[in-house]
Design a protein that fits this description.
The structure is a homotrimer of 208-residue chains.
Chain A: H1 10-33, H2 38-60, H3 65-68, H4 71-85, H5 95-117, H6 122-144, H7 157-172, H8 177-198
């Protein structure tokens, strides 16, 4: 598949960079909590920062984004170093959750947009947004041996689905892309923020 | 690689649908046992239903099957909803094992057939059948935090290998494809059924 | 992407075979320690032996190396059988670590070389060397339910990074490929050997 006339403009590119950078930071913070070495910081930052986008690119048949352009790798390594040298109190409490929430919303929109730009149909493009947004965090949690967010009733995948579906719907409806991207990312972030702040959660299965 | 003159007829297409649907059901049932939310039901159903086939398509260089055709995604989501709303007693006991056994046998044959249709050599096509059949279940078990079937002495991978190898052998020997597919899937299912029913297992390593 | 004028000569091919074979052996030994069946021996040997190289090929857009050429699969299966029938005392103690160390150094160099031969830029080629060398072991540890080497402070990823970066640097500097490959693999192995022998480790994060 080749690129069609769905432009990835500056707003979407910014969401990509924000997603990579913030996920890399959450990976490095997870390494800090697990008292790892600087090399493991780098490994966690890379796997969390570029993991979701890598799987997205493999699935849609795009060249993997960090192979030709080495800036994402460099950004992840610099962020790992920054987390290593800054005071740990900056990363306490719910900091990880909030960084992750912004990264998730940004990456859900960018993932769906990149899929559309490769001519992927709408339903699969929404799935790509969800994957891009959720896989980085799942990889990080598995690496750190922590229970994955997707196994908790707290809203997470739902917020990514809202952001990705809203973006695909708004852009199909002819809304200007920068506006559609901004509104969708904010909506996904707002829903996830309610989950972090108020514990907003889905009901669990009670069949039996 | 492009498609060669190995036709995927209606019997093989049926095995594909059966594999996707039953694996999706086992994913949703695993989510029910873990008292998850409806979103997690959908996530487990999708990952288990399309996971093995996705890896197969990436390895053989085929377009990922659920990107252009959204029916597999829709089927997984509908099945997740059905498991959510039906009485849990339907899914008790060994139901999961039996659904999984049929899905495994169907998917082992279809995975090998799809690989052959892309011009993959016989030995690698058998491996693709085994991968397609086993990976969905492994993904489900890892997601649910349960010990994977491949770590138990009970026959499982062996049954998938029987189905895939028998299909590749019979079709190479010129047996009509619908017959080869049906016989191979039944043989794989029968071997797995003996394992579920009678505890048929391989000997474990006793070196020392 | 297609192959450019970076020749994979006999020294690099030997490193590939050594990497596949030794990783397959460590996978089978992990299965023996976990008292698994012969089928699981084969599964562990295959996943560990070809896992890292498979991910490398998917990322750089190369055809997966064991699809057309079935010798790697056959080698992994033969090695699984050899580990099954030989006395377990051969595989005691640190044998697994030493086999893994040679396989890691060989695979770090070959992974970087294969990436260069597909026209991948230097920084990404170094990453490919690290991935090829480390992923097989990570897959093995996850399958066997053991804590992964990358979570321990002992030098491991660092040694792979040294081998891959040294090879990319030396070949860019015009050093003859067989010499660059040999020197780099030896350097990576020597660093890992110090870690196994003397417990050489990186400092862990003490921020707080």
């Amino acid at each position: 598949m080749t690129s069609i006339d769905f432009p990835i403009g500056p707003v979407l590119s910014t969401l990509d960079i924000v997603g990579i950078g913030l996920f890399a930071a959450t990976g490095a913070v997870a390494a800090a909590r697990a008292r790892q070495t600087l090399i493991t910081f780098a490994f966690f930052a890379l796997a969390t920062g570029v993991g979701g986008g890598t799987v997205r690119d493999l699935l849609i048949g795009a060249p993997v984004f960090w192979i030709e352009d080495t800036r994402p790798l460099t950004a992840c390594l610099v962020i790992a170093l920054l987390v290593w040298i800054t005071p740990a109190r900056l990363w306490r409490g719910k900091t990880l959750d909030w960084l992750d929430a912004i990264g998730m919303a940004a990456y859900a929109v960018f993932g769906a947009a990149k899929a559309l730009s490769f001519g992927i149909p709408p339903v699969a493009a929404v799935m790509m947004g969800i994957f891009t947004a959720c896989l980085g965090g799942i990889i990080r949690d598995v690496l750190a041996g922590e229970p994955s967010i997707i196994l908790k009733p707290e809203l997470y995948v739902t917020a990514a689905a809202l952001a990705a579906a809203l973006f695909v719907g708004l852009s199909a409806a002819g809304v200007m892309l920068p506006v559609a991207a901004g509104v969708s990312a904010l909506a996904g972030f707002a829903l996830r923020a309610l989950a972090i702040w108020k514990g907003l959660a889905l009901p669990v299965y009670r069949g039996g």
